[in-house]
Design goal:
By secondary structure, this protein is α/β, with parallel strands linked by helices. It is built from nine helices and 14 strands. The structure holds zinc ion.
Length: about 250
């Protein structure tokens, strides 16, 4: 199991720093979230044809908008002959299709094989097992766990405290966890994202072996997020820097 960070910027991309997007697995990885900038990062690695499925954790633009140029690439670029399975919560397929005016019979529905997922669902893709959990967010959103039979990786997507993240990450070899904010929960306030200390606490309670903090707001220093998460976790913590590769 290998994790590749295509991008990890929280909420918006910056030059050289795409928004959320990751590859998880081996020769036929799943692509977790397609935030702005992640399509060109995936193309630079030559992996688009090999992806077994695309997971869009929710409809927010920093997690799914590159699915639109990805449609154009798959439709006109000759990189892939078979439909790409896209696993997403209810409403995502309809919103993306509406954005480009893709009614019934449009190539959008042939290029992508959309499947709605909800917390508790299990799906197989490219020899990997994907298990979805509940995220706490203002739109339908999921956490996801990727198992290859030997190793496991859990990804929070965007979530506030109190969802199914700990269950998703139970005993995982790696927790890739959003840490949008820093400092204390009472000062941060926003209920639909985590502060770094909460990411660390989730990793500790879940018994995850390793933690990568991600989706750090671009205005914050990721080194501070790593320190705050580590203080709660007690295990190895890194920032999910763009381009980072981790072998599990
Ligand atoms: Zn979001």
């Amino acid at each position: 199991m290998r994790l590749v960070v295509l991008g990890s910027n929280g909420t918006y991309p910056e030059p050289g720093r795409p928004a959320s997007g990751y590859l998880a697995g081996g020769d036929r990885p799943v692509w977790l979230d397609a935030g702005p900038g992640t399509l060109t990062a995936a193309m630079a690695r030559g992996v688009v044809a090999d992806v077994s499925a695309l997971v869009l954790t929710h409809v927010h633009g920093d997690h799914c908008l590159d699915a639109l140029p990805l449609f154009n690439l798959l439709r006109y670029g000759g990189v892939r002959a078979t439909p790409l399975p896209v696993l997403a919560p209810r409403g995502v397929a309809e919103r993306l299709a509406a954005f480009i005016g893709a009614g019934p019979g449009h190539d959008f529905h042939r290029v992508f094989d959309f499947r709605t997922v909800a917390p508790g669902d299990e799906v197989s893709a490219g020899g990997l097992r994907l298990t979805f959990g509940a995220a706490v967010h203002p739109v339908p959103a999921v956490t996801v766990r990727v198992d290859d039979g030997e190793r496991s990786l859990a990804y929070s997507g965007d979530t506030g405290p109190g969802g199914g993240l700990v269950e998703t990450a139970a005993g995982a070899d790696l927790l890739l966890c959003e840490a949008t904010g820093q400092g204390r929960r009472e000062e941060y306030g926003y209920p639909h994202h985590l502060v770094a200390a909460e990411a660390g606490a989730a990793a500790r309670v879940a018994g995850a072996r390793r933690l990568l903090v991600t989706h750090v707001a671009p205005t914050l220093d990721p080194a501070v997020s790593v320190r705050e998460a580590a203080a709660e976790y007690g295990g190895p913590v890194e920032w999910a820097a763009p381009g980072l590769e981790v072998q599990l």
